[in-house]
Design a protein that fits this description.
With about 400 residues, this protein is of the alpha/beta class. The protein has 12 helices and 12 strands. The strands form 3 sheets. It has a 7-stranded mixed beta sheet, sandwiched between helices. Strands 9-10-12 form a 3-stranded antiparallel beta sheet. Strands 1-11 form a two-stranded parallel ribbon. It binds pyridoxal-5'-phosphate.
Length: about 400
C-alpha cells in the first residue's frame, strides 16, 4: 500500500503545475535576474511575474514583496530588521509564548543585545490574551509580532484587533502567516499588517523560498548583507526557479483555495468525528472553530505521542508529534504547555494535517490503525485511564 501522508503542516509536495513552471528555469531560462543582458532580463521578467502573483494573493503591491529563503529567514529578518530600524524609538518587543522557534529564538538573541521582550500568554484554546497586550504595550514598545495561525494546534488569532491596538499606540505589527497562507485569505491592507512572513513549501511550492511583505514606507534593516538584490535589502543571487514555483503556487491558491479549503475541512472534520466516535478519552486541541481547516491536534490520554507516531509509521501513516522542529528533539511542546496542558498531556499529543489529495478511504484506514495502536499503548501504559467525557 502507498504511504498515507498526514503531515502537511510540516511540508507539502510540490504540485505538478508548479514543477512544470519551474523546470525550464534550471537549464533554459537560467539567467541571473540582475544581469543586464537579454538572458538576465528574461529571468528578471519571470521574477517580476512571480512577485506579482505573490503580491496578488495577499493584496500587496509588488514593491512590498522581498523574496527570502523561507519562513525562518522571513521571521528572523522581520524581528531583527524592524527592531534595528526602530531602536532609537524604544527597545521593547511584544510576541507570544506560542510562536514558531524562528521568532522565539531571534527574540532571545535580541534580548542579549539590549532589547526587552514580553512573551504574551494564551488561553486554553491558544488565543492571545488581548488584555495582556493592552497591559504590556508601552511608550517603549516598537514592535508586536503575533502569528496568524499556529502550526501545532491551528488556532487563528484576532489579527485585526491586534493590528488596531498596535496602530493606536503607534507600534509596528508583524505576523508569521506561514501556516495561515492558503488556509484563509489574508488581505494585508484590510488587516493593516506592517510586515508578514510567508513560505512556499507549505502551499505546494518548493522548499527554501518564501517572502517577507513589508508595507511601503516602513523602514527595515537588511539581515543578509552583500549585493543590491531585492532593492538592496537582501543580498544573494535570487533563487529564480524557487521564486517562479512560489509564484505559481500562490496563483493556484488564489484560484482554488475556496473549493480546496471546503474539501480539506470536510476530510478533517470527518476524521475528528470518527476518532471521537471510536476512541475514548481524547481531547481535540486548539480553538473549537477559530482554527485552520487542515489540522487536527489530538491528545490521547495515557498514550505516549511519540510511540503512537512510530506505530502509525509502521502502518505506513505519516503524522507528527507537536511541531516538526521540536519532534526530533524530545522537547515538550511549548505551545501546549502555554495552553495550560500538563507535560503528560502535551506528550500524549499527535498532529494530523490534511491536504486536498487525501481521501476518505485513507482516513478510514488511519482511524482503524489509530484505534488499534492507541489500545495497544494504553494496555502497556503505566498511567491509569480515568473515564471522562469527550
Ligand atoms: C514552517 C513554519 C515556519 C518556517 O518556515 P520555513 O520555510 O520552513 O523556514 C515558520 N512559521 C510557521 C508557523 C511555520 O509553520
Amino acid at each position: 500500500m502507498q504511504r498515507i501522508y498526514l503531515d502537511n503542516v510540516a511540508t507539502t509536495s510540490v504540485s505538478n503545475e508548479v514543477l512544470t513552471e519551474m523546470l525550464p528555469v534550471f537549464c533554459e531560462n537560467f539567467g541571473n535576474p540582475n544581469s543586464l543582458h537579454s538572458v538576465g532580463r528574461d529571468a528578471q521578467a519571470l521574477v517580476d511575474n512571480a512577485r506579482d502573483r505573490v503580491a496578488n494573493l495577499i493584496n500587496a503591491d509588488r514593491g512590498e514583496i522581498f523574496f527570502t529563503s523561507g519562513g525562518t529567514e522571513g521571521n528572523n529578518w522581520a524581528l531583527y530588521g524592524l527592531a534595528m530600524a526602530n531602536k532609537s524609538k524604544g527597545n521593547h518587543i511584544i510576541t507570544s509564548q506560542i510562536e514558531h522557534h524562528s521568532v522565539l529564538d531571534m527574540c532571545k538573541r535580541l534580548e542579549k543585545n539590549g532589547f526587552e521582550v514580553t512573551y504574551l500568554p494564551v488561553d486554553k484554546n491558544g488565543l492571545v490574551d488581548i488584555s495582556m497586550l493592552l497591559h504590556y504595550i508601552s511608550q517603549k514598545t516598537i514592535l508586536v509580532s503575533i502569528m496568524a495561525a499556529n502550526n501545532e494546534v491551528g488556532t487563528i488569532q484576532n489579527l485585526k484587533t491586534i493590528s488596531k491596538i498596535c496602530h493606536e499606540k503607534n507600534v509596528l505589527f508583524h505576523t508569521d502567516a506561514v501556516q495561515a497562507l492558503g488556509n484563509f485569505r489574508i488581505d494585508v491592507k484590510d488587516l493593516e499588517i506592517d510586515a508578514m512572513t510567508i513560505s512556499a513549501h507549505k502551499i505546494h511550492g518548493p522548499k527554501g523560498v518564501g517572502a517577507l511583505f513589508v508595507k511601503k514606507g516602513i523602514k527595515i534593516e537588511g539581515l543578509i548583507a552583500g549585493g543590491e538584490q531585492e532593492r538592496g535589502k537582501r543580498g544573494g543571487t535570487l533563487n529564480t526557479a524557487g521564486i517562479v514555483g512560489f509564484g505559481k503556487a500562490c496563483e493556484i491558491v488564489m484560484n482554488n483555495h475556496i473549493v480546496d479549503g471546503k474539501k480539506i475541512k470536510y476530510l478533517r472534520d470527518y476524521f475528528i468525528s470518527q476518532v471521537a466516535e471510536q476512541i475514548e478519552n481524547v481531547t481535540i486541541n486548539g480553538h473549537p472553530h477559530q482554527r485552520i481547516a487542515s489540522l487536527a491536534s489530538i491528545s490521547f490520554d495515557c498514550v505516549d505521542g511519540e510511540a503512537l507516531m512510530y506505530l502509525l509509521d509502521l502502518a505506513e501513516i505519516c503524522v507528527s508529534t507537536g511541531s516538526a522542529c521540536s519532534s526530533g528533539s524530545h522537547e515538550i511542546s511549548h505551545v501546549l504547555l502555554a495552553m495550560g496542558r500538563t507535560p503528560e498531556e502535551a506528550q500524549s499529543t499527535v498532529r494530523f494535517s490534511f491536504d486536498v489529495n487525501n481521501t476518505k478511504e485513507e482516513i478510514d484506514y488511519v482511524v482503524k490503525e489509530l484505534k488499534k495502536s492507541v489500545e495497544k499503548l494504553r494496555t502497556i501504559s503505566p498511567l491509569k485511564l480515568t473515564k471522562k467525557k469527550v
